[in-house]
Amino acid sequence: MLPILQTMNRMTARIRFLFLPVLALLFLFGFAASAIAQDGASPASTVSPNDVKEVSKQLWCPLCSGVRLDACELKACEQMRDVIAVKLSEGDSDQEIKDYFVAQYGPQVLGEPPLEGFNWLAWILPVVVMIGGGVFLWFRARSMIGGRTQEATAGAATSSAASDSEDEYGRKLDEELKHYD
Questions:
Q1: Are residues 102 and 128 in the same domain?
Q2: How far is 58 from 39, CA to CA, in rounded Å?
């Protein structure tokens, strides 16, 4: 064999020997880089869906009337649930998340009026109406029962007079029927 060919064979063997370890290192570093990138890219992965659902049960859809956030299927509500997951993964408490959504959408997102200002009326008025209605019904029932007992005592005194008039009415009826026979 020619000396030049022997030298080239040795060089290609060295290149192959160096090329394979370098390729293996690049391959491993590529996987490590993607793993590191994915670790920071999904902050909601540490938050369970139950955690998100517990917070979203306390909020209402700002677009639909009377639909809780956990049950609403609108795209906006899905995005709100994603925001809840991100905020939970950042360590925000339930109250901080609710405050965030109140700042974004107003107090109607809570589904219940806050206990302050004119909103106290919304909490107190139903109780007052129920108590007032119960008292009214109690007095009304008492007056109806009281009226019947007075009628019953008055009716007992006039029952003898009523039976006399009924006898007279029956007698007249019999006379009329005999007339047609």
A1: no
A2: 30
